[in-house]
Write a structure and sequence with these properties.
Blueprint lengths: L12 E3 L2 E3 L6 E5 L6 E6 L3 H18 L4 H17 L1 H12 L3 H21 L6 E3 L7 E8 L2 E5 L7 H13 L3 E4 L6 H13 L6 E3 L5 H10 L3 E7 L2 H12 L4 E5 L4 E5 L5 H12 L10 E7 L3 H13 L19 H16 L3 E4 L14 E4 L6 H4 L6 E7 L2 H8 L4 E2 L1 E5 L3 H10 L4 E4 L14 E2 L2 E2 L12 E8 L1
Parallel strand pairs: 7-8, 7-10, 8-9, 10-11, 12-13, 12-18, 13-16, 15-16, 18-19
Antiparallel strand pairs: 1-2, 3-4, 5-6, 6-22, 11-21, 14-15, 17-20
Helix pairs in contact: 1-7, 2-4, 2-5, 2-6, 3-4, 4-5, 9-10
Length: 482
């Protein structure tokens, strides 16, 4: 499928209000994960180019922080309007480079734009306080100010929304920002640069750099003393490295890292609704999301009913090219991802798990992994501990509330959890006992602009979205008047 508006398809980086190549002139190819066809070659920045982007942000920051909240709000609102106006074209770009079905991609565009709209409004609400003085001749005031130059490193699975969720609050707070998108999916980020320019974002305030040299660029961004804040979404392993790298300059950091989400079905649950929630939670983006349900725990009394109904529903899902009509599950991002998922399934079956559905790549395309259901799953299998990041549902059996809560919490991760049940006393007990930053109760979809998104334990820290999200880009200053 061809793009109707090719002005949104850029192959150069957006730095200081200009579209530029790296000083070496190098490029790397962006390919469609469905068939590995080349979409376009984009600029391949190095550390020297990255430093220029940081300096551009530093220069722009000095003026941007002086603008009023109302002025920033108007620009962000215009940017939001442009995203909605071009949602179909942005969705096509996203599907081409990432693979998810086009309706799902357009849904991500709308979801991503909602953060820009939200923080356009929140810009006006960064209130301080007047605190009763501790002495008669003292007056105490607190104000909130922008933290400074921000860097955002974003993943390939949500190449639009993971950017707007960071850039929206950063710009609203008065911060200039440098965005480094994943090498697999830089085109969505560059398209946002086009619209930011049209919306009137001043030059240098929003910069997008693309590169295949992940380690080199990461080092330049984290070691820079100019950068005062780093926001990262990605794996826990990489997040730990970035935290360490930011320590020398004591940057403010926020981390949205890996997950191992439990999905619990209690014996009094509405099984039909639980099946709907399971599919919504698990198979979105072919299972390639950090909040996807990973381990399914089903009470012994409803285990057979849930499994049989789930199998019927999952067998009806259409797998294929994300651009094709009716497709609900697209390709995995690359061959390494396919191999990882297959190894997870192989480990389970070798240890006694049964394949109720799927368990293999599509016969039509090696990047398509068929929706899979595994039963007779045990704790000694990799599906219990690993983040699967693919369309695989392993179903564990449990008998008691205490047992399932213990299993659900038996992980270093703490991002999202889901459960279905009707007993309100059980609902409150389990919701409070689960060691996760977000809990979905009788729903498989929890992501929304208005709620704080973030995890605990090794799933990271910091919140995105909601009224709390802008605080990640602000510093509180206390002023004592004598």
């Amino acid at each position: 499928m061809k793009l109707d508006n090719t002005t949104l398809l850029k192959n150069k980086c957006y730095v200081d209000g200009e579209w530029v190549s790296g000083h070496e002139g190098k490029t790397f190819d962006v390919t469609n994960p469905y068939d590995q066809s080349k979409i376009i070659a984009v600029a391949d920045f190095d550390a020297q180019d990255t430093d220029k982007a940081i300096l551009a942000a530093e220069k722009a920051q000095k003026e941007w922080k002086k603008t009023t909240a109302g002025e920033r709000s108007k620009i962000l609102r215009k940017w939001f309007d442009l995203m909605i106006e071009h949602k179909e074209e942005l969705g096509k770009i996203l599907t081409l480079e990432q693979g998810k079905p086009l309706p799902e991609a357009i849904g991500e565009i709308v979801y991503g734009a909602s953060f820009v709209e939200w923080f356009a409004e929140e810009a006006k609400r960064t209130y301080g306080d007047v605190i009763p003085g501790h002495q008669a001749d003292k007056r105490i005031v607190t104000i909130k100010q922008p933290v400074g130059v921000v860097v955002a490193i974003t993943p390939w699975n949500f190449p639009n929304a993971m950017i707007t969720r960071k850039v929206g609050p950063a710009l609203a707070a008065g911060c200039a920002i440098v965005v480094k998108p994943a090498k697999y999916t830089p085109l969505s980020a560059l398209a946002l640069g086009v619209l930011a320019e049209q919306a009137g974002v001043p030059k240098g305030v929003f910069n997008v750099i693309t590169s295949s040299r992940t380690s080199e660029i990461g080092k330049a961004l984290t070691e820079s003393s100019i950068v005062r804040k780093l926001s990262f979404t990605g794996s826990t392993a990489v997040g730990k490295q970035l935290i360490k790298a930011c320590a020398d300059t004591v940057k403010k950091v926020s981390m949205e890292l890996g997950g191992n989400a439990p999905f619990i079905v209690f014996e009094d649950a509405d099984v039909d609704k639980a099946v709907e929630g399971a599919i919504a939670s698990k198979y979105r983006n072919a299972g390639q999301t950090c909040v996807c349900s990973n381990r399914f725990f089903v009470h012994a009394r409803v285990y057979d009913e849930f499994t049989s109904k789930l199998k019927i529903a999952v067998s009806q899902l259409k797998v294929g090219n994300g651009m094709d009509e009716g497709v609900q599950i697209g390709p995995l991002i690359d061959q390494e991802a396919v191999n990882f998922v297959q190894n997870i399934v192989n480990d389970a079956t070798e240890k006694g798990a049964l394949i109720d559905l799927g368990g293999e790549v599509s016969k039509e395309n090696k990047q398509l992994y068929m929706p899979t259901i595994l039963s007779n799953v045990q704790k000694n299998m990799d599906v219990y501990t690993e983040e699967i990041f693919g369309p695989v549902i392993p179903i564990f059996r449990f008998e008691t509330e205490e047992e399932v809560v213990e299993m659900a919490n038996d992980t270093q991760y703490g991002l999202a959890a889901y459960f279905y049940g009707r007993d309100y006393q059980l609902v409150w007990r389990v919701a409070e006992a689960l060691e996760y930053g977000m809990v979905g109760i009788n729903t498989g979809m929890i992501s929304t602009t208005v709620a704080p998104f973030g995890g605990i334990k090794e799933s990271g820290f910091g919140k995105e979205g909601s009224k709390y999200g802008i605080d990640e880009y602000l510093e509180m200053k206390y002023m004592c008047f004598g």
